[in-house]
């Protein structure tokens, strides 16, 4: 799913208009699509629509017409009908109740149509007061984006209403999933208004995974090595190895001196045997980093892997040891924010651009973990995953993610694709785990996640 900037969306709409689709038609499609979505999810009830002075307000006036026809008791709160077209024409058809924003009545359903993707300045005081007046007074639905959210960064330009649902027109916006937008946008629905959209970024969607062939065997499903670190911290590598097994790898081998056995189905090998397995063409992926200390053995393993040909997923401790090491092997880096900053410098306001720059600079696929995880490839591709949960903020969850991605690479996926699919599976496992989730629970959730696809 395209994930657009405000400029990309404006360009797409301008191209559609230049090709013969009028701005009025686009607004009518948006209003009708939004109204249908609202009617499908809510019974007829009193509705307050907060309508702004621009095209987002025009969408609101249009939605008012359709909801009133469907039996909703609609009140529009506005400090003046729009002057520009096509919003002015849309508002001109409304004959129902209109009150000033300062008198906006609370209602079971509040529709936020004040400001859309063009807002770049703080909310005016009167608009903020109107939002505060209805706050907590009903279920909020935002048209296109919650008023007061920057559509490119998700930064709050005031105190937006938290929407239970956002109905976006044409494409998802970056601000829906970045910054505060992830918490304030609620469930996201995208209405097709007939505008072809080209975007540099995409939103990760539920993957479609093929089933197994009738004659498959364990090596065809991929053999994965997980390099264990300090035996006293063996739990981290064990989590990664168990996750790789549960995510579909046919054979997973823990390489190190530890004795812990997270599952009887896991293989164990010492370092010399592990190095020999690297030359086996059936070994298709290596995970290194969980529980890895800064010592000579770790550095030797990392240098050996980066000089080889087997794809490497580098996490946690491995990320601290990368400086100065050339990488010939296909490489995926999975830093959290602190690790990313140590590797590449401050992230800055544009997180997507920062991850893209890191991928281009390093020649690796870079996965920046967070509430919205950003994945970028050296060729410029970038994707954002918002299918996650705060319950994943627990020790060891990142080790599980590394193992999941290692399994997907072992099954033949390219690193960028495996990262996108892996973060979605990881997020879904976290959602299924819910309150009380610990990282040990995540691998056990994966069979249900995979079976549901």
Describe the structure concisely for a colleague.
This protein has 453 residues and is an alpha/beta fold.
Overall description:
- By secondary structure, the protein is an alpha/beta fold.
- The chain folds into two domains: about 1-200, YjeF N-terminal domain (Rossmann fold, 3-Layer(aba) Sandwich); about 225-450, UDP-N-acetylmuramoyl-L-alanine:D-glutamate ligase.
- About 35% of the residues lie in helices and about 15% in strands.
- The protein is built from 15 helices and 19 strands.
- The protein has helices at about 5-20, 25-40, 55-70, 85-90, 125-135, 175, 180-185, 235-245, 270-280, 295-305, 335-345, 350-360, 395-410, 415-435, 440-450; strands at about 1-5, 45-50, 75, 100, 110-115, 140-145, 165-170, 170-175, 185-190, 200-205, 225, 250-255, 265-270, 285-290, 310-315, 330-335, 365-370, 375, 380-385.
- The strands form two sheets. The chain has a twelve-stranded mixed β-sheet, with helices on both faces. A seven-stranded parallel β-sheet has the order 4-3-2-5-6-7-9, covered by helices on one side.
- The protein is elongated.
- About 50% of the residues are buried.
